[in-house]
UniProtKB/TrEMBL annotation, chain A:
SUPFAM superfamilies: Aminomethyltransferase beta-barrel domain, FAD/NAD(P)-binding domain, Folate-binding domain. InterPro entries: 2Fe-2S-bd_N (IPR042204), FAD/NAD-bd_sf (IPR036188), FAD/NAD-binding_dom (IPR023753), GcvT/YgfZ/DmdA (IPR028896), GcvT/YgfZ_C (IPR029043), GcvT_C (IPR013977), GCVT_N (IPR006222), Sarcosine_oxidase_asu (IPR006277). It comes from the Bacteria. PANTHER family: AMINOMETHYLTRANSFERASE (PTHR43757), AMINOMETHYLTRANSFERASE, MITOCHONDRIAL (PTHR43757:SF2). Belongs to the GcvT family. Gene3D superfamilies: 2Fe-2S iron-sulphur cluster binding domain, sarcosine oxidase, alpha subunit, N-terminal domain, FAD/NAD(P)-binding domain, Probable tRNA modification gtpase trme, domain 1. Residues 621-891 form the GCVT N-terminal domain. Keywords: Oxidoreductase. This is Sarcosine oxidase subunit alpha. The keyword Oxidoreductase applies. One of its GO terms (molecular function) is sarcosine oxidase activity. It holds the Pfam family GCV_T. Residues 912-997 form the Aminomethyltransferase C-terminal domain.
UniProtKB/TrEMBL annotation, chain B:
This is Sarcosine oxidase subunit gamma. InterPro entries: SoxG (IPR007375), TrmE/GcvT-like (IPR027266). It comes from Lutimaribacter saemankumensis. It holds the Pfam family SoxG. SUPFAM superfamilies: Folate-binding domain.
From TrEMBL, chain C:
This is Sarcosine oxidase subunit beta. PROSITE patterns: RHODANESE_3. The keyword Mitochondrion does not apply. GO terms for biological process: tetrahydrofolate metabolic process. GO terms for molecular function: nucleotide binding; sarcosine oxidase activity. Belongs to the SoxB family. Pfam families: DAO. Residues 35-79 form the Rhodanese domain. Its cofactor is FAD; FMN.
UniProtKB/TrEMBL annotation, chain D:
This is Sarcosine oxidase subunit delta. GO terms for biological process: tetrahydrofolate metabolic process. GO terms for molecular function: sarcosine oxidase activity. It comes from Lutimaribacter saemankumensis.
């Protein structure tokens, strides 16, 4: 049984109790506990089930590397699946449930898989479930999926109640990791005057050293930590941040840090997580090292734990994992655990040291404490199912013949240490294999490089492969100096404090225990505890040709679990190397990818949710539209009124009403979203002649002309009315979506091609509200407002004038997209609402109505006007649309002209724009294709045209459409067929695309 | 003429800093070659301020000129005076290639005030800009991206920042700044 | 080759799986092959497979600079669909999808094709019209798709937020027999089958030069020596530009990073693949339980297999808006692949200016789904000089202005 | 996450302030040009794994286009320079030669 010790616990405030629940059970811990330590203190070792075989799982680690202790944390809108108990700080009211079992943690039906495990080796699913074919979808896959996943999925209706944010910061030196190495590196760089940010993922500074012991300048390591912190806190150029994890290192010194602000104390105002987007000149990774498990049979049984974790629980949390702990190791560090436990009065029946020669000074110390030390020995097998009951001992050199059984309730294992090289590696840092220490460590010659090609990451301390406290501090000080120098600070020579720790005997790599373990043992020797990958699986992969470490990973899923193989990767690739008979460095590692440990989606999205998920662009009349209950459609980031339904009206009814009213008398449209670009300069005319297919330089001041713009690839990209304001000034209207795009397009050509042309462009789209006043009574209403002459003679069709209406300065364009008498009035945006209100007021006698985008679309279609995005789709050239009249024959060049000379563009078989009328007057379906005879070489039905836009016209009382049809303009009157997706076939006659007021009499009045 | 209405009329938010709409503000976009001999003089006469250096903003009372790009400046002045100043600039620059357009209504304009460090950190949540006091101070105009839109920021003084964005996204930017200023969201990065 | 089956697994279980043979051999390169394929990604391997299976051409080597399947085939979000708009696209993707249906049986390797359905959300009126157009086109192309209403969307995907408010779901284009497959297994299954036909899949063999004589290709240089061939197929995705340069021509291709990420695994909660193109995000749940999420492509040339993080941010915020319940899930891992983007974002399956040298590339962000169909057509093109599935995808179409542009409706590529 | 120095603002701009614009120093071919030239100009791209010249715009900044010389394989930036030029400046070419001995530009055609 794990339990709380009477004394100890550096992190605990025993005076404060904290209440929480686990699987519904009410429990208490102390302030300072993690969920893991609190559960262990209550004797709750088993906390979950493994992925594949549903094996019982208990904690193996005490920190971020934990693969097993994952819980569903919280509930409802605050449910967080897969939360690591070892990094979850306990708070009052915490609720957690265990994962991946049914019906209960103790009794899990899925655990039968463990009995079939022999039939479920790595990759079994590639070899099975194929026959009969239909079974995959209906039997096999549903079954596999049912057993998938670990944590509980939040309910569909869940809405996260917390907020998140980002923070941009720029620092000279970022130090990641607040152990002694990180503290020392920060001190050195900070003293040199560099601007330093030091981050630590846990709530505690000092890392392993206070637990592991040793002295710094003659004093306990913990005192060094306190002193370092005090000094750092006093420095103006240093910022410290705990609960802040270095999540990823990216190109050009970009680093993501994940700050968990309130996970440990939910409730108060403020964000839950903050994602720091750091730009660092230099990054010091002082991320420490992670202990490796040993691979022996039954190493996954709850109660088998990393030796350092056993020590951490005892020292930091005052928790013993068992009463009798067997320590098994291949290095000296684990002796510290035995010594610590013994010092707390717990039993250590034996230390099993796989090294024939055993350990150094620590081993002597252990022996002196009366601990039995067995060298050259190994664990053949762990006894027990849901909890360790004992171990069988054998010779490490043998095949597992049991020499002895030792009763125990915990096993503390250590296979050596692996530097945390993740952040070093994220952005391309390379590793080197250190044979003496049996570890991959950063290869300082192949560091990640930044924008100037400079190395920008410096590893420090154990993260750099230095294990002894003295070396760690010296290396960290050197890293601090190097970082400070690299950012232009002037550090003094690295002076590291003097540290001392007992001498240690060298590690001897042990990748399998015992060395000659037979297949039955290897099938029970776990590498990846969460994903149930065993030694035998990796060996199988090698045998089947999955020789690349990347293949082996993907075939076995080794290292793909939520811990990303922090414990399993090195052991796995060592097994693979052995199976392939090649040295470990030749096998290499898999790729380290961000994040270091998983980070919340909420933090990644930051503030961008709800109201500020994306910008909504608002016209100066948006409030009014909202007040009217308009039905909006998103157009780019705008939301334009689609129609303004009244009462019980359907959208279609509203649209019809708006059209009828406009055509009959008076309608108004908020056209503010149309792009408005001022193009000015001596070369403005010449420039616009290149941009538009038609001639703009001949336009007279005071007049307007409709123009087309193509991409250099020849396709129609935008259209709009151009007004010439002065000799050297034009105002170009673009489509709603076009304003920014066309502005950028103009700047691009001016800056990168014709940079000697004298033209300036200004985007004044939002300076103006633009209101279209449309209908036979349009003039009357303007005249009623008074202020300027809007008569036919003074302001004819396609002219514009500056003036005042109702006392408000404005510019009036007589242009029409509806075919009606129409004025578009541009007014300073800050006055747009005032003008709108006045127009409504004086239009009341004409029963004025606002109309939305759909009415606009229908009216333009009735007139046969094309719409960018409907008649065009990025593959259409103006010639397809019968717009040859708008393509100047006189110009030598315009953007897109050369492209339009290519063979496919001049192909007479290109589909051309026509009007379409169904024979029965119904509306053609949107997007329908006209069929032709036969099928093509790929068996697809031949087609000869398609609908580009289609509406019910309230004006004509029938369906009208436009479409692109093969030889269309030559086939007037012909009836072609459009099969619908509803099973019906629609017959439509090819007609002129202008359905209404062909001679333009209405707009010209 | 009616009273002009700003994009987010009278909006105010108070959290770790105060965010408020500055109301109608006169603005003119001025484009010209920087070497245009008449330019310096025209700006001096009409605005009373010197042309600022690259990325600078130079003020004269309630008027200011900000560098926007090598051939573009933004002129700030009282709303009611913009059109007249525009005309004056055009006159002063007549005969040279230039552009002067009033854009007062095309922008939204906010003031962020409070503790100096808080003001910086509220902005730093939204813009990819180094706002450390050692590297960003008054007199600098910074055009940048604010969350998902373009914006320009400067410090009027320590503890008072100004933000300009396009009018249509004024509400968005106000909401962003308010979210960034939410109570309990202090960062304490610039405090040291 | 010993066949895989449940009985084989049971037999092997009895002897602790010691009897399994290699899935593919590891041969030394020969002096000469009839056909060399550069690139053992899905497309290269499938090409080789159908050269052997359909045309009896088996003296084939597939040269891979790294580990087979380690390119984009091993790092994509596995979406399979054929609801494309343009005829040539629909033809090759539907051929592909239909081959996927029986691929496990054909290869005797369970590639776990999962036709769970692919849904492309329509969130603007414009998108609605675009998908209606695609639905009409698909009906005539023999591709089974349907435009569905919001309530059906919600029924199929309970976790979706159909009410917006920013972009309400107005409907979706639904392809019930689109889905996913296990990406690695596709490469492995083909490699095993190729190896079994006597072809040489040679890994850690990087092509460093293309040798030609009199305008014809005669072989390649590699880090393992020169190898001769009569015909050469370049199938290297992101590295197409590099190989084309070796072969002496240029391509309308730029290589950029495309990113993806997975969440931690959770219990099954989403049964179909959802693509939300207005907000740029797509997501499915793997058979293991992770949410598999695709991000956007960088806009600049890049060979690093990393990308810029802001695309991940953009995708994640889009998906939280679409599926609010993922907010408290965590990103487990993110990665990138180098994708080959053409001028019209459609692939190139083509002869090249170098005689007997063929190229299959330009699949960009969406070629996983095309692997079997592309292999089928490209094998035919290489064997016979022409293939109805490939002919429209010639690399010379750009000079004629004959684009195959899928972005025109509301389509995207993945 | 690139940083490029905008030669106009003198700022080290975050990638999110910038908009990429593809290969630099393209020569425009208009009406009357050959199919080859036009295809080369509009579509065929250098796509080197290594030194590349490209266009960028300081879109969320001064709005100006500029050129960058960058290694597509290491993302090292050799320099940025004016958009109003048809060739990389000599000092940047020299710098690249120093860092990537033997590199060539547009030799291959
Ligand atoms: C993040 C991401 C998500 C995607 N999502 C989807 C999706 O959901 N659906 C979809 O259909 N598609 C998707 N794709 C696209 C899809 O992955 C690719 O189109 C497809 O995998 C390309 O296959 P391939 O065989 O052509 O290329 P690859 O699989 O990349 O194979 C090319 C091979 O060529 C090798 N090679 C390169 N140079 C040489 C040389 N000199 N010598 C020898 N060998 C060489 C490479 O090592 C590589 O193995 C996605 C891609 C990415 C990156
Ligand atoms: N003798 C041995 O075998 C052995 C092995 C390991 C460690 N040690 C001892 O451990 C100490 C090592 O000191 P150290 O400072 O190098 O390592 P450390 O493990 O003490 O400290 C590393 C710190 O970095 C933090 N960290 C890791 N990844 C992080 C991330 N991504 N973001 C933020 N924080 C992160 C950890 O939480 C930890 O606090 C020394 O006392 C050394 O002697 C000894
Ligand atoms: C569909 C799919 C699902 C994946 N699921 C996981 C996963 O569950 N765990 C994991 O660690 N990686 C997962 N990955 C990512 C891979 O580990 C790996 O990052 C990716 O294939 C790219 O390779 P690289 O990171 O080695 O370059 C997945 C990848 C894909 C394409
Ligand atoms: Zn700039």
């Amino acid at each position: 049984m794990s339990t709380r010790l009477a004394q100890g616990g550096r992190f605990l405030n025993r005076a404060r109790k904290v209440n929480f629940t686990f699987n519904g059970q009410h429990l208490t811990g102390h302030e300072g506990d993690t969920l893991a330590s609190a559960l262990l203190a209550q004797g709750q070792m088993m906390v979950g089930r493994s992925f594949k075989y549903h094996r019982p799982r208990g904690m193996v680690a005490s920190g971020a590397e934990e693969p097993n202790a994952l819980v569903n944390l919280g509930s409802g809108n605050r449910l967080e699946p897969n939360q690591r108990a070892t990094t979850t700080e306990l708070f009052d009211g915490l609720t957690a449930t265990s994962q991946n079992h049914w019906p209960s943690l103790e009794f899990d039906v899925g655990a039968v898989n463990t009995y079939f495990s022999r039939f479920l080796p790595a990759g079994f699913y590639y070899k099975m479930f194929m026959y009969p074919r239909a079974f995959w979808k209906h039997v096999y896959e549903p079954f596999i999926r049912q057993s998938a996943g670990l944590g509980r999925a939040p309910e569909p209706h869940v809405r996260d109640e917390d907020t998140y944010e980002h923070f941009y910061a720029f620092v000279d030196v970022l130090v990641i990791g607040g152990g002694v190495a990180g503290l020392q590196a920060a001190l050195t760089a900070g003293r040199a005057g560099a601007q330093v940010l030091l981050i630590e993922q846990t709530a505690h500074w000092g890392g392993r050293a206070p637990v592991d012991g040793g002295t710094v300048d003659g004093k306990p390591a913990a005192e060094f930590v306190d002193a370092a912190l005090a000094e750092l806190r006093g420095m103006k150029n240093v910022v410290l941040r705990d609960r802040c994890m270095g999540a990823g290192v990216y190109d050009h010194g970009y680093v993501l840090a994940y700050e968990r602000i309130s996970d440990h104390a939910p409730g108060p105002a403020g964000p839950r997580h903050r994602l720091w987007r750091l730009r660092c000149k230099q990054v010091v990774t002082a991320t420490g090292a992670i202990e490796r498990p040993l691979s022996f049979a039954g190493n996954d049984i709850p109660g088998v734990m990393l030796a350092s974790a056993v020590r951490d629980y005892a020292v930091n949390y005052g928790v013993s994992i068992g009463d009798r702990t067997v320590v098994v190791t291949n290095n000296d560090d684990a002796y510290r655990t035995a010594i610590t436990l013994k010092g707390l009065g717990l039993e250590v029946p034996a230390i099993i040291d796989a090294r024939a020669g055993g350990g150094g000074a620590l081993a002597d110390e252990a022996r002196a404490l009366g601990i039995r030390v067995e060298t050259g020995k190994a664990i053949a097998k762990v006894k027990g199912a849901k909890r360790v009951e004992g171990v069988a001992i054998c010779a490490q050199a043998g095949e597992g013949a049991v020499l002895e059984e030792i009763k125990c309730d915990a096993v503390a294992m250590s296979g050596g240490w692996s530097p945390v090289v993740h952040l070093w590696s994220h952005c391309g840092g390379k590793l080197t294999w250190d044979d003496a220490q049996a570890m991959f460590r950063p290869n300082a010659d192949l560091a990640p490089t930044g924008a100037a090609g400079e190395a920008f990451v410096i590893p420090a301390g154990t993260a750099n492969g230095y294990m002894g406290l003295a070396e760690v501090l010296a290396d960290a000080a050197a890293a601090g100096v190097a970082a400070a120098k690299a950012v232009g600070a002037k550090p003094k020579k690295a002076e590291a404090p003097q540290a001392s720790t007992p001498d240690e005997a060298p590690i001897e790599p042990v990748w399998l225990m015992p060395q000659g373990a037979d297949i039955k043992l290897r099938m029970k020797a776990w590498l990846d505890f969460q994903n149930d990958v065993k030694v035998s699986d990796v060996q199988l992969a090698a045998r089947e040709g999955f020789e690349s470490v990347e293949h082996a990973k993907r075939y076995t899923t080794l290292g793909m679990a939520t811990d990303q193989g922090k414990l399993s990767n090195i052991n796995g690739l060592a097994i693979l190397s052995d199976a392939l008979g090649q040295p470990i460095p030749q096998t290499g590692t898999t790729t380290f990818r961000p994040p270091y440990t998983p980070i919340s989606m909420g933090a990644i999205a930051g503030e961008a949710r709800g109201k500020v998920f994306q910008p909504i662009r608002r016209t100066p009349l948006q409030d009014w539209h909202e007040g009217q209950g308009a039905y909006f459609e998103p157009v780019g980031h705008w939301r334009r009124p689609y129609c303004y339904p009244r009462g019980e009206e359907s959208h279609a009814q509203a649209v019809a009403r708006e059209i009828n009213q406009t055509r009959g008398s008076l309608g108004m449209l908020d056209a503010s979203t149309l792009g408005k670009l001022i193009v000015k300069g001596p070369d403005a005319g010449k420039f616009l002649d290149m941009l538009y297919t038609n001639m703009m330089s001949t336009l007279k001041p005071g007049r307007c002309r409709y123009g087309l713009m193509c991409s250099e690839n020849g396709f129609l990209m935008d259209d709009g009315v151009v007004a010439r304001i002065h000799d050297d000034t034009f105002l170009c209207h673009t489509t709603t979506g076009g304003a920014d795009r066309i502005h950028a397009h103009m700047e691009e050509w001016l800056q990168t091609e014709w940079w000697d042309w004298q033209v300036y462009v200004a985007n004044v789209t939002e300076q103006y509200g633009q209101i279209a006043v449309v209908g036979p009574d349009a003039r009357k209403v303007l005249e009623k407002l008074g202020g300027m002459d809007v008569s036919k003679d003074t302001l004819p069709f396609m002219a514009w004038a500056d003036g005042e209406l109702g006392g408000i300065a404005c510019r009036v364009y007589r242009i029409s997209f509806s075919g009606e008498l129409s004025y578009e009035i541009a007014v300073d945006a800050g006055h747009a609402r005032a003008l709108w209100d006045k127009l409504l007021e004086s239009g009341a006698e004409f029963n004025v109505m606002p109309y939305g985008t759909e009415a606009l679309h229908v009216m333009r279609a009735e007139k046969g006007f094309i719409m960018i995005g409907d008649e065009t789709d990025g593959t259409v050239i103006p010639q397809d649309l019968g717009l040859d009249w708008a393509i100047s024959k006189k110009k030598e060049d315009y953007i897109g002209k050369r492209a339009q000379e290519r063979s496919h563009m001049t192909d007479p078989r290109r589909w051309k724009l026509v009007g379409l009328e169904t024979v029965d007057g119904s509306k053609l379906p949107d997007g329908a294709y006209a069929v032709a005879d036969g099928k093509n070489a790929n068996g697809q039905r031949n087609v000869q045209g398609r609908v580009t836009s289609t509406y019910h016209s309230p004006t004509l009382g029938r369906g009208i459409a436009m479409g692109l049809v093969l030889n269309g303009p030559d086939r007037m009157g012909e009836v072609i067929e459009f099969p619908g997706t509803d099973g019906k076939t629609y017959k439509a006659r090819i007609v002129d695309p202008v359905f209404f007021d062909k001679d333009g009499e209405k707009q010209n009045v | 003429m009616s009273e002009p209405v700003s994009a987010v009329k009278n909006a105010v938010f108070s959290g770790i800093v105060r965010v408020e709409d500055c109301g109608p503000q006169g603005m003119i976009t001025l484009r010209s070659d920087a070497s245009n001999a008449k330019l310096k003089q025209a700006v001096k006469v009409v605005i009373g301020a010197d042309l600022p250096p690259v990325r600078g903003i130079s003020a004269n009372g309630d008027r200011a000129v900000a560098w926007m790009s090598p051939d573009e400046w933004l002129i700030l002045l009282p709303y009611a005076e913009a059109r007249a100043a525009e005309a004056e600039l055009r006159k002063a620059l007549a005969g040279t290639h230039h552009l002067a357009e009033t854009v007062s209504d095309a922008r939204a304009f906010f003031r962020v005030t409070g503790d100096a460090a808080r003001v910086r950190e509220v902005l730093a949540k939204l813009v990819p800009v180094d706002l450390h006091p050692a590297r960003f101070g008054t007199g600098e105009m910074r055009r940048t991206r604010m969350a998902q839109v373009a914006a320009a920021i400067w410090l009027e003084s320590e503890g008072e920042a100004r933000v300009i964005c396009f009018r249509s996204v004024g509400a968005y930017v106000f909401d962003l700044l308010s979210a960034a200023a939410a109570n309990g969201s202090e960062v304490a990065f610039f405090d040291a | 080759m010993k066949r895989y089956s449940v009985f084989a697994v049971a037999r092997e279980a009895a002897r602790y799986h010691t009897g399994w043979e290699r899935a593919w051999k590891s041969p030394e390169p020969k002096k000469k092959y009839d056909v060399i394929i550069i690139g053992a990604g899905g497309h290269g391997l499938a090409t080789a497979y159908y050269l052997g299976k359909n045309f009896g051409i088996r003296n084939v080597a597939i040269l891979e600079k790294g580990w087979l399947g380690g390119g984009n085939t091993g790092r994509n979000t596995t979406i399979i669909r054929s609801n494309y708009l343009q005829d040539p696209s629909a033809a090759i993707y539907e051929k592909s999808r239909s081959l996927y249906e029986d691929l496990s049986q054909d290869l005797n390797y369970n590639i776990m094709f999962s036709p769970r359905g692919v849904m492309m959300l329509a969130q603007t009126e414009h998108e609605v019209r675009g998908y209606l157009r695609t639905a009409h086109a698909n009906a005539l192309q023999g591709v089974e798709t349907r435009f569905i209403k919001p309530d059906e969307v919600k029924k199929l995907v309970p976790i979706i937020n159909i009410d917006g408010p920013r972009y309400p779901v107005l409907g979706a284009l639904w392809q019930p027999r689109g889905g996913t497959a296990r990406h690695d297994a596709v490469a492995w299954g083909y490699a095993r089958a190729c190896s079994d036909m006597g072809m040489d899949v040679i890994q850690k063999c990087e092509v460093t030069g293309v040798r030609q004589e009199g305008g014809r290709v005669v072989g390649v240089d590699t880090n393992r020596g020169a190898i001769d061939c009569d015909k050469l197929g370049i199938v290297v995705a992101g590295h197409s530009g590099v190989l084309a340069e070796m072969a002496g021509f240029r391509l309308p291709i730029e290589s950029v990073a495309l990113q993806a990420l997975v969440s931690e695994p959770i219990k099954p909660c989403m049964d179909v693949v959802v693509m939300a193109n207005t907000v740029h995000g797509y997501m499915s749940q793997s058979d293991k339980g992770e949410m598999v999420i695709g991000g956007g492509a960088d806009g600049y040339n890049n060979y690093t297999q990393r990308g810029s993080f802001h695309h991940i941010e953009e995708t994640v915020r889009a998906l939280i808006e679409t599926f609010p319940m993922i907010s408290r899930l965590k990103m487990l891992r993110q990665w990138g692949g180098i994708v080959d983007m053409t001028g019209d974002r459609s692939p190139i399956l083509s002869k090249t200016p170098l005689e007997n040298c063929f190229i299959n590339c330009g699949w960009g962000t969406g070629g996983f789904k095309a692997i079997p169909g592309s292999g089928w057509g490209f094998a035919e093109l290489m064997a016979k000089g022409s293939s109805p599935l490939c002919d429209e995808f010639s690399m010379f179409r750009f000079r004629e202005g004959k684009f195959i542009d899928e972005s025109v409706a509301a389509g995207v590529a993945h | 996450m690139l940083i490029l120095e905008c030669p106009y603002c003198g700022l080290h701009a975050d990638e999110t302030e910038l908009a990429p614009g593809g290969e630099a120093h393209l020569k425009r071919f208009g009406p009357g040009s050959s199919d080859d030239d036009f295809e080369g100009y509009l579509f065929m791209r250098e796509n080197p794994k290594g030194v590349h010249f490209e266009r960028w715009r300081h879109a969320n900044g001064c709005g100006k286009w500029f050129h960058a010389a960058r290694d597509t394989n290491t993302l090292e930036v050799f320099g940025t320079y004016s958009a109003q030029t048809t060739e990389p400046p000599q000092d940047i070419k020299d710098k690249i030669s120093a860092r990537r001995p033997g590199w060539t530009w547009r030799e291959f055609a």
